[in-house]
Amino acid sequence: MLTKEDTYKKAFENIRKTLSEKQAQRDLMLSAAYKANPRLSEIDMLLSRTGADIAVTALSEGKDGVEQLQKKASALAEEKKMLLKKAQVPEISYNCSVCKDTGYASGKICGCVKREAAAVMTAELSREMPLQSCRFDNFDLKYYSDKDGADGQNPRRRMTAVFKLCREYAIGFSPETSCNLLFMGDAGLGKTHLTLAVVSAVIEKGYMPVYASAGNLFSAIENEKFQSEGKGVYDSVLNCDLLVIDDLGTELATSFTKSVLYNIINTRILIRRPTIINTNLSMKQLEERYTPRVSSRLIGNYEGYKFLGKDIRQQKKMESIK
């Protein structure tokens, strides 16, 4: 699991590696050009001398002498430029014109680093989850029945409202103001699809989410605490822009996981950082599994939504058989 620090470190590494490769390629071409045309080395020597002469002249002879030397330096630089062009040695083409691929502009992290960090996060999440295939534009409401059930509830109307909620949540997302969401319902009803669509949109906005299944999340935190594996995982979980815990209730329930879950939920409520939790459990089952302290905070601080319908994965499988 990549922390925010890991993500930005990787982004800087990628940017600098690309720049280093471009510089190395140009150095090889320069070396060949200098070897083929000794005039280039001569120009460098003359430019160096001219620069020293300008400094001395500025102190002794005044403005006119400096201008003459500057014209000489400009002519030499232009000659060198033409010779390098003739030798087909290009200037480095930077991916970012603002920071010249250094990662910093005006003493601050450049926007290109944030974009690269988003790409790193997307790639990392995509290795674990189908991030690219779970988007708002391919969430198909046709798999939800448009008929009222025995309880009077209409799955399609309900899920249309949930879909709209998730899309609006993603569009207006802010780590400071967005609410906590609790998605409940049976397996295969689209909880993971919609939360991944939210995560993708949040990443595109430049924020750093943490997304993990409950089992992987608690395992990573436990390994960090007791086996010194990983660094900053728990801190990242507590302080990330958006935390998504998928499949809560499928992990092995221990006193450690219960304590960690309570601390995560409670801390993020206190520091006002949004969290989305997906679970197949009902609120009563959550209370029985994690104690009333957890369920109380979920009820009081999360907006809960029940997913309705029939298992979409099974429906798609049946379609493929026909």
Write up this protein.
The chain has 322 residues and is α/β, with parallel strands linked by helices. It folds into two domains: 14-86; 129-321, 3-Layer(aba) Sandwich (Rossmann fold). Helices cover 60% and strands 10% of the residues. The protein has helices at 4-36, 39-60, 63-86, 111-128, 155-171, 191-204, 214-226, 233-239, 255-270, 283-290, 292-301, 312-321, and strands spanning 104-105, 108-109, 180-184, 209-213, 242-248, 275-279, 302-306. The strands form two sheets. The chain has a five-stranded parallel sheet, sandwiched between helices. The chain has a two-stranded antiparallel sheet with strand order 1-2. Helix 1 (4-36) packs across helix 4 (111-128). It is elongated, with a radius of gyration of 29 Å. The relative contact order is 0.11. The mean pLDDT is 89.
Please supply descriptive tags for the structure shown above:
322 residues, alpha/beta, single chain, 2 domains, 7 strands, five-stranded parallel sheet
Spatial ordering of strands, largest sheet: 4-5-6-3-7
What is the average per-residue confidence, as pLDDT, rounded to a whole number?
89
CATH class of the largest domain: Alpha Beta
Share of residues in helices = 55-70%
The biggest beta sheet is recorded as: 5 strands, parallel
Helix count from the secondary structure assignment: 12
Helix vs. strand class? alpha/beta
CATH homology group of the largest domain: P-loop containing nucleotide triphosphate hydrolases
Can you tell me the CATH topology of the largest domain?
Rossmann fold
Catalogue the unreliable spans: none
| Number of self-contained structural domains | 2
How would the global form be characterised? elongated
According to DSSP, the number of beta strands is 7
For the record, give the distance between the C-alpha atoms at the N and C termini, rounded to a whole number. Answer: 40 Å
Please tell me how large the radius of gyration is: 29 Å
H-E string: HHHEEHHEHEHHEHEHHEH
| Strand residues, percent | 5-15%
Write the CATH architecture name of the largest domain: 3-Layer(aba) Sandwich
